[in-house]
Every structure is written in C-alpha cells, then in structure tokens.
Amino acid sequence: MLLNCNKNATTYRNKNATNRLIIITMPQEHDSFANLLKARLKNANLKPKQIADIIDIDRSNVYQWLKGNTTPRCNDKTRKGLLACIKPLNFQTVNEFNQFLQAAGQPVLTEAEEQKYFPHSKTEPQPQHQSATHETPDIIEDNLPALPIINLPINLPHQFFGREKKLEQIFDQWKQPPLFNVAVIGPRRSGKTSLLHYIKNIHRATRRRKGQRKNWLKTDTNFVFIDFQAAGMTEQKNLFSYILQELHFTVPEPCNFFQFTQIMRSELLKPTVLLMDRIDVGLETSELDYRFWWGIRSLVTNDTNGNLGLLLASPKLPTPAMPCSCANQPSPFLNIFSEIVELEPLTDKEARELLQHAPQPFDDADKKWILKESGCWPALLQVLLDVRLRAIDENEIGDAWKKEGLERIQKDGYLSNLYNNRNERIRG
To answer: What is the pTM of this model?
Structure first.
C-alpha cells in the first residue's frame, strides 16, 4: 500500500511481498531519470556505451535517456538489464535503487529481487499512519511516456489510460457511507489488476499527465490491495495481519477472526475499501471456507458503520455456491455485490491517447493498424506498440514488425484469447 510520509517521501508495499514496507523518495522535477543516470555514470566513471553494453541495448537508447527524451521500456529484457546495473552504478541500498527505478517509470524491487541484489540492506522504518487520499504536491507533465508495459500490471497512475466511465461507475459507490460493494469482471489480461492499482494509487499520485483526473472522491478514503495469489494470502492469520498492518492497526496475538473483527469494529473510523484481486483463488481454498466469507459479509454489512466496502476482481462472476467441502451451502457473501462492472476494450479515443504518449513518434498508418489489430484491448496495444518501437530502434524497414507482433500475441494463450475476442467483436 502506498502512503505519503512527507513532502518528498512515499512508502510502497510491493505487490509480491507480504507485510513489507519499502520507503523511497519520489523524484522531484530536477531529479529526473536523465539527471539520476548522468550522476550515476559520472560517479562510476562509466560512458553511455558501457552502460548500454551492460543493459544489452543499442547505445542510442541510452543517449535518448540522457537527453530526457525517453525513459526505459517496462518489459522483462529491460528489467533484467537495469538489475545488471546495480553493481556497476554503485547502488548501495534498496531505497537508492527503488528511487532510480521509480524515476525510470519501473516497478520497485520485489522481495525476491531485494534478497538477491541487496541481501544485507534494510528497508527504513514504517512511517506514522497517513490516509491514502492525503493531498501531496503534484508533478504534472504534458507528455509522460506510456512506456509499453509487457507482462506486468500497471502500478503508476500516469501510465494508466482510459476506463473513465467504468471508474465513474465504481467511485460512485463510495462517495459517502455506507460504502457499496463492487465486482469487476473481465477476461484474463483485460486489465483488472491494473485497474485496482489505479484505484488504490491515484488519489495520492505525485505524477500525472496533464488533464488526468485525480480527485474522484471528496471523502478521505483508505484502500488496501489484496492479491489472493500472493504467498500466504489464503491463510486467515496472514490475511488478517496484512490488512491490519496496511491500516496501521495493532496486530493482536493470536490474530484470529474474532480478534480481527473486534479491532475493525472499534478502530475503523474512516471509509476503507478492500481491493480483492483474484477472488476466485480465495474462494477455492479450504481455509477461507464459507464460514469465513459469511463472517466477512457480516463485518461489512453490520459491524463497521458503513465504513467498509469491498471490490472483487475475477475473470468471471463467481457462482453463488461455495466451492469447497460445503459446495451446497449458499454464499450470502457474493450476494452483497450489487454493482457489476465488466471490463471491455478501451474506446478508440482512449486507445489513441495511449499511442500518442509513446516515447517515440511513428506513422499514423501504423497507429491505425495497431488500433485495428488490438481491438483496443490495453494488453494487445502494449505488445504491438512495443514491437513497433523496437523496430524503429533497430532501423528496420518494412512491415516485418507486424508479423512479429501477431506471433507474440499468438504465443500467449491469454493474449490470444483477447485477440480472438477482438475478431468476434469485429464480426459481430
């Protein structure tokens, strides 16, 4: 969970880490990625060509970074290359490198990456509680690049595009207590996790595109992101401890359902939304059985004065029967989700805005082809945009990149399903 500590500092809880807080300093305007990279190169006595060789990219890309024209792309290859820079650029702490990644528009280190690259480094202590919608100074820029993001959820609000009507539909449920409960459904890779991250992060985002909306809610609201695929999140003790720590409440011992509900009843005094990603995974586990979900329903509807709301995300709406040993027991938990939001492709206007923020310009004819072939699904847009920009970087001439892009889509089962869905819409 991202919480504001002070004017410049921001605390992240990495999605892949349980009960972990990472404090980084948000880059100010003078602390752009270009300036941070220049300083690191100078201190390490390295030339742009040398760092390009380490990252395994063309040196022209590094020169573009140093000029401030572009920033690194967000994909597996670039991630691996940036991690390879830790020793050559003399990064000593997790916080230093996370600041560097943040300036580059990249996700912060996962817990596994921290342990591998900074085994002896310690994260800074947890700050005092501040709410998720606490106001912070903004850096508003005209042309923050979209940075094609491949195989990763979007964490930074300025890289999130579209979904305006869906977001209005969702935030309308939380304008004032009692908070209502929302179910977000959509096919795999349709952008559900990115949407949840945007909802959690936008109200205290310090970097936004010019004209990008921020204050969806007037009421100070806390958001807690829960990924049921993360290690330990399907065990009650871990789940309760995580939620309480995210809200900066004392974690009791033992941390069981009774103790958890007692604390939530007495201490939850402001609107709070639990964002539950991959709820289908949580519903399939034996420890989170029907009694557990009935208890959560009671906590939401009866015990928190309307201050607790839920948003679940799943490929499809879960069935109203619990799937464990009590398969015939009805699930009143699922009956409290009165607002169903189905994710669809972006509108043509929203998809064009994403392409407009590409780090390099390219032909309108190519944009038109990408829009058509992607069906305006964000994940497909990102893949085809990444392939097109790679071809530009490597001075490729012709349309070979189009074939490569479609082949990449077909190799990924979920992307292939989206592509087929796009074809069905066209035929429809």
So the answer is: 0.72
